[in-house]
Design a protein that fits this description.
The structure holds two protein chains of two kinds. Chain A is an all-alpha fold. Chain A contains 20 helices and two strands. Chain A is globular. Chain A starts with a helix and ends with a helix. The C terminus of chain A is likely disordered. Chain B is mainly alpha-helical.
Chain lengths: 500, 498
Amino acid sequence: MILSLESMLQLSIIVPLLATIGIVATGSKPNLREAVTITASIVLLYFVTSLYQGIKQGESISVQWWELLPGLQISFSVEPLGMLFALIASFLWLVTTVYSIGYMRSHNERNQTRFYTCFAIAIGSVMGIAFADNLFTLFIFYEVLTLSTYPLVTHAGTEEAKKGGRIYLGILLGTSIAFFLLAIVSTWFVAGTLDFKPGGVFDSNVNKTVAGVILILFVFGIGKAAIMPFHRWLPAAMVAPTPVSALLHAVAVVKAGVFTILKVCVLIFGIDLLSVLPTTQFLLYLAGASVLLASLVAMRQDNLKARLAYSTVSQLGYVTIGALLATSSGVIGSSMHIGMHAFGKITLFFCAGAILVAAHKSKISEMRGLGRQMPITMVAFFIASLSIIGVPPAGGTWSKWFLLMGTMEAQQWVLMVILMISSLLNIAYLLPIPFRAFFPGTETPTGNAGIKEAPLLSLIALCITTLGCVILFVYPQPLYELAKAILATSELTHGLTHGK
Amino acid sequence: MLAHLPILQVIVPLMAAPLCLLIVRPRLVWLFTLIVSGLAFLISVLLLQQVMASGTIIYGLGGWDAPWGIEYRIDQLNALLLLIISAISTIVLLAAHTSIRQEISEDRQTFFYVLYLLSLAGMLGIVATGDAFNVFVFLEISSLSAYALIALGKDRRALWASYQYLIMGTIGATFILIGIGLMYQMTGTLNMDDLSRRLPEVANTRTVFTAFAFVIVGVCLKLALFPLHLWLPNAYAYAPSIVTAFFAATATKVAIYLLIRFTFSVFGLSFSFTALPLQILFLILGLAGIFVASTIAIYQTNIKHLFAYSSIAQIGYMIVGFSISTTTGLMATLLHVFNHALMKGALFLALGAVMYRIGSVQLNQFQGLGRQMPFTMAAIVIGGLSLIGVPLTVGFVSKWYLILAAIENGWWPVAVLILLGSLLAVVYVWRLVEAAYFKSPLAANETVKEAPLSFLIPIWILVIANLYFGIDTRLSVEVAQAASQGLFGGLSGVGVNQ
C-alpha cells in the first residue's frame, strides 16, 4: 500500500485520534490495549519519517480541510520547524509508551484506559499544532491539547490533583482565551490573513505600537511557553503520573508553546519586523528574568519533579529568548534547543519516575547513595543533566552554543551573561543529585537495601533517550539542517534543499 | 399551500392547542404535540429556504392589503428566529413525555401540552407578524401561557417565581403597548413597514421619543437585560425542566428579536441611536450584565440557577454585539442568538435528565455523576465548553465575530472585557465538572443509572448540533450575515458614528 504524502500528513493527525477508539474498545484487556497504543505510535512514526524524507527531497506537502469561518481555513502543511517538532514528539511518544507500560503497571495506577486515551488525543493535537498551516488551525489544536491533558493532570483524583488541575486549566485556558485569541483576532484584523508566511504577514509600514502590543499578547497568551508570570501551571502539572510529566510537560505541551512562539516570531512577524518593534526588548528581558528566576527557584526544590519542572520553565525561556533575538543564530539555537532539551528533560523525568517506582522516593534529600542500587538510572540522569547544562558529550551543547552566538550577534550582552549564569545554576541544581547518589560521603544512607532498578521496559526507554542525548551531540546535522531551513527566505516548503 | 406558509407557521400550533383537550390520554397528547411542533419546524425550514432564495415574503392576512389588514412579513431575520424556535421546541418535546410524567400530576398533563403549544404559537406569532399591535397580542399569548407553565413546577416556589414573572412581564408588555399606542396616535398606522416610513416625518416630537423609550424599556424587561433580569433566575429554576429548556433557548431570543426589529426597522437606525444614548447605554449594561451575572453564577449551588444567571450573562454578549451596531456586531448578536439556543437547550435538557434521575439539581447531588450518568454529564461538559467558547463549538463562532466586531470598531478594551468575561464561564462550568468527576457519589445516589434514551436522544441532538455548527458554520454564518446586511439596508458597516 503506497500512500501519498498528503494522505500521510492527514493520517499523522488522524491516526492517534483513531487509536483512541481502539484503546477504549480494548480497555478491559490491558495487553491488547497497550498493543493498540504501540501500533499507533509506530504507524505515526513511520508516517512522520516518510514526510521527513519527502521534504528532504524538496516536495511541498500541504492539505486543506475545510473553511471553518469565511477566509479561515483548517489546513496543514509540512515546513521544517513543524517537521522537527513532529519528529521529536512522535519518536518520544513511542518511547514513552514503552516506559509507561512498565511504570503504570508497577505503580498500580487506576483508570489506565482513560490515561492512554487522553494521551493519544494529546499526541494527535500535537501533530495538528506541528503541521498547522495557519494560526487559526494551530489555535484549535492548541486548545484541544489543553483540554485533553487536563484529565491526565488530575489523573490521581485526589484533592491535590484537583487543585493542580485547576491551576493548570485556569492558566492555560485563561491566557489562551484572554490574550492568545485576542492576538489572533487582532492579527486577522490588521494583517488580513493568519497564514504562516516566510518573512511575516504584516506590512512593513504597519503601526509599530499596535504590532508591539500584539507581540506582547502573543507571548503572554501562549501560556504553554511558561514565561513568568504565567508559569505556575507547569509545577502544578507535576501531580500527574510521571510519563505524563515526561512526555507532555517536558516535551509535547511545553514545546508546543515555544514552538508556537517561534512560529509567530519567524512566520507571522518575521525577524526583520521583530527586531524593530518597541516591545521586543521588554519581552527579551522578561524571558531572561524567567530563565534566571526559575533556575533560582529550582535550586530550592527538594521534590525532584518540582525541581525538574522549574528547570523546564527556565529552559523554555532560552527558546523564547532565541526566537525574540531575531537573528539567524538565535532562531537556529532555539529550534535546536526544542529538540535537545526534549531528549534531556524526558530522560530526567524517566529517571525520576524510575526512582519513584523502584525506591518510592520523590525527595532529592532521600536519594543519597542510591547509585549503588540503581546505577543505570543514575548514569542516565548524569548524562541527561550534562545535556541540559550544555556541555559535551551531550546534545545540549550545540543549542546553547547557537543561543550564545545569537545574543552576541544581537549584542544583547545582558542576556548573554544571564544565559551563562543560568548554565552555572543548572550545574548547581542538577549535578549534585547523581554525585550524591554515587558518593554519599561519610553519612551512610539507610533504608536503601532491597531497592532494585525500575521495571525493564522503563529502563529500556530511559536508555534510549539517554543514547539520544549523546547521538545528538555526535550527529546533530539533521536537527541543524531543519533549524537552518526555517530561516530560508525562499519558498518555505522547499526550504530544505535551500538549507543544504 | 406554499404561499400560505407564513400564516400556517402560526396557526397550526395555535389551532392545535385546544384540540389537545379532546385527546385525553397523556401519551397521545404528547405525540400530537410533537407532530404539530414538527410540522411547525418543517414550515420554518421551507420558509427559510424560500427567503434565502427569493427574498422577503409578504403575506396579507385574509386578503386585506396592508396597512389596513394585518400583514405577515418574513425576511431572513424572521426566518432564522422561526427556525430556532420551532427546532428547539421539537427537540425539547422529544423528552417531554418522560420528564412531564414525573414532574406534573397526571390530570394536569394535557393542560401542560395545551399551554406549551399556545406558548409556541405566541412566540412564532411575535416573530412572523409585521404588525405592531399583533406583536403585543402574541406577546400576551406566549407570556400568559408561560406564567401558567412555570407555575406548574413541582416546587412550591414555582408559584412565587411565576407571580414575579407575571408582574414584571406584564409591566414590560404594558410598556410595549403604551409605546405602540403612542406611535399609532402619531402616525395612524400599526403596520411596521408603514410605521418605518411615517415615523421620520414626526420623529422630532416628544410623543415619538416617549413611545421609543417605553418600547425599549418594555422589551428590555422581557429580554432580562441586566438590571431588569430579576424575574428570570427563579422562573427558570423552579419551572418544570422541559419548560426551562424550552424557554431558556427561545423566550429571551424572541425579545432580542423585538429589540432589533423595533430599533432597526420600525424606528430606524439613525433615530434609534440618536434619540437615546442607546449605544453607550447598552454597551455598559451589556458588559455589566456579563460580569455581574457570571460572578453571581459562580456562587450558585442550584445548577438551574447557575445556568439561569449564565443566560443573563450571555444576553449581555448579545446586547454588546447590538451596541456595536455594525453589520459584524449585529451578525455576532444573531449568531449568538442561534448558538446560545443550542447551548442552553442542551444544558437545561441535560439538567432535566438529572432532575429525572435524582430529583434535584443541587451542586452536591452531581457528585460522582460523571461515572453514573456518563452521557448526560459528557453533554453538560460539551455544552459548558461551548458556553466558554472553545474552538470547534458554536460558542467560539459567536465569540470570534463579537471580538472581531469590537476590534473593527476600535473598541479594544471591549474586546478584552468580552474575553475576560468568558473566563468567568470557565470557573462556573468547572465547579460542576469537578463535582461530577472528582467526588464520590452521595450515599443516596449510589444506584443512580444513566438517563433513559428519550432524554439522551434529544440532548445529544443538541450537543451534536453544538459541535456541528461549530465546525460547519456555513448555514448559521450565511443566514446571520444576510439578516444583518438586510437590517442595514444592504450597506455594510454603517455605524452610528456616521
